[in-house]
Design brief:
Blueprint (H helix, E strand, L loop, with lengths): L9 H19 L4 H9 L2 H14 L10 H8 L1 H10 L3 H7 L1 H28 L8 H13 L2 H11 L3 H27 L1 H8 L4 H17 L5 H32 L11 H16 L12 H17 L12 H24 L3 H12 L1 H12 L4 H29 L3
Helix pairs in contact: 1-3, 3-15, 4-15, 5-9, 5-13, 5-14, 5-15, 5-19, 7-8, 7-16, 7-17, 7-19, 8-9, 8-10, 8-19, 9-19, 10-16, 10-17, 10-18, 13-14, 14-19, 16-17, 17-18, 17-19, 18-19
């Protein structure tokens, strides 16, 4: 990579990233047969990571010298987490039933257990794969596979893996997660056979579909100027309060309990993430949750994809091939997740819909869960989103626990 990039002005770089994001999502919705096939092979989120990564790897831009990522992660990530969590609908979760939530949580447990087990297995096969920092990169996968991109970025900020290591783990995350999504969708095409295996009652899916469609039609609104200001005020106001509290707590722990640094409890950003997620959960039980009907999660999604592009421009694509055994960690990890969620689904006798959407609400986030739910019926897309929001709420916490377990499993 060139020491001095071709484009150094961050205003120009930000403009390029936003234009790229628009073109990627515009093209992904095209009816052109070639583009439809292209985005079947290369989903939009992959291109949002790898095109900026290619620009960085070829010296067009420089993620190392740019200030876009530090600014985006500290200014956009916290409100992004808060606004995603704000749409948590406990009433809809009740309508989905306890079994649906238990299957989702089984998927979460599969990720929490799968990570350290996969690390332990591969460490015994290829110990050279791991050093004292490898678990930090894998921690970002845990955040992604339990919550989503925002949780992944939160754990990246907490554990601070190197740019090279993060490039490798992002590649593992995307390749393994998209391979699993392909298998899930193949299962949708054969859902009758799988439902017979699981023994689930599929009539429940029809009932949920009707309820969700009616509620969405009744509540959805076009956002006004005041609505958008309200969304930003909640997102950034909550972020300000989180920073205010974190700026007091982190230095206090560092001064009085320095041994807790190994748990990242002396990190200001760790506490910011904890508080904004907590604020989002609390506000989701108030009238503030109505902001979801005027686009709160859409604003959060814009923030998220700016973050993803900013993360992408820090990637060195050449580094991906240097540690192939990390991909083995990823595949063993996802297999363990699959075994646990399918086993719990069969034990509870749920329809395949809950297994498929519950898995993708963990591993793929809102986008993939929506794709799988929509493969059943467009009215069910919001079910995927609701379960994914639950993932956003628990993703950073469960991902943090998984990270510590992987640190232990890797022997550091």
């Amino acid at each position: 990579m060139n020491a001095s990039p071709l484009i150094e002005n961050d205003v120009i770089v930000l403009g390029i990233l936003l234009v790229l994001l628009y073109l990627i999502f515009w093209a992904s919705q095209s009816t052109n047969s070639f583009l439809k096939k292209l985005f079947t092979l290369f989903p939009p989120i992959l291109l949002c990571y790898f095109i900026p990564g290619a620009l960085n790897s070829t010296g067009v831009i420089s993620g190392e010298s740019s200030q876009i990522y530090p600014v985006a992660s500290h200014y956009l990530l916290p409100p992004c987490l808060l606004l995603f969590t704000l749409s948590l609908d406990l009433n809809m979760l009740k309508k989905l039933g306890l079994k649906a939530v238990l299957v989702f949580l089984a998927g979460t447990l599969g990720v929490v257990i799968g990570g350290p087990v996969a690390v332990w297995i591969v460490k015994n096969i290829a110990p050279q794969t791991f050093d004292e920092n490898t678990w930090k990169g894998l921690a970002t996968i845990a955040g992604s596979w339990i919550g989503g991109g925002a949780n992944q970025t939160a754990l990246k900020e907490v554990f601070q893996p190197s740019g090279k290591l993060f490039s490798q783990t992002v590649a593992v995350d995307i390749l393994v997660a998209e391979s699993w999504l392909a298998l899930i969708l193949l299962g949708v095409a054969n859902k009758n056979r799988i439902n017979n295996f699981l023994g689930g009652d599929t009539s429940l899916i029809g009932e949920i579909k009707d309820k969700v469609a009616l509620e969405a039609e009744a509540n959805s609104k076009i956002p006004s100027f005041l609505n958008l200001l309200h969304i930003l005020a909640i997102g950034f106001g909550g972020t300000a309060l989180a920073y205010l509290l974190a700026d007091q707590i982190a230095p206090y722990i560092a001064e009085n309990h320095p041994s807790l640094a190994k748990l990242s409890l002396t990190s200001t950003f760790f506490w910011v993430v904890v508080f904004v997620t907590l604020f989002g959960i609390v506000l989701s039980q108030t009238k503030a949750r109505a902001l979801e009907h005027v686009g709160a999660s859409k604003v959060a999604s814009v923030f998220l994809y700016i973050l993803i592009a900013a993360i992408g421009m820090q990637m060195n694509l050449v580094a991906i091939q240097e540690n192939p055994y990390l991909f083995l960690v990823g595949f063993i990890w996802i297999i363990i997740h699959a075994i646990i969620i399918v086993a719990v689904g069969k034990m509870l006798k749920v329809p395949y819909f809950f297994v498929a959407v519950g898995s993708q609400a963990n591993v793929g986030g809102a986008a993939s869960a929506s794709v799988v739910a929509g493969a059943y019926h467009p009215a069910l897309i919001s079910v995927g989103v609701i379960l994914s929001v639950l993932g956003y709420a628990v993703g950073t916490y469960a991902g943090y626990i998984t990270a510590l377990l992987m640190k232990w499993a890797s022997g550091f």
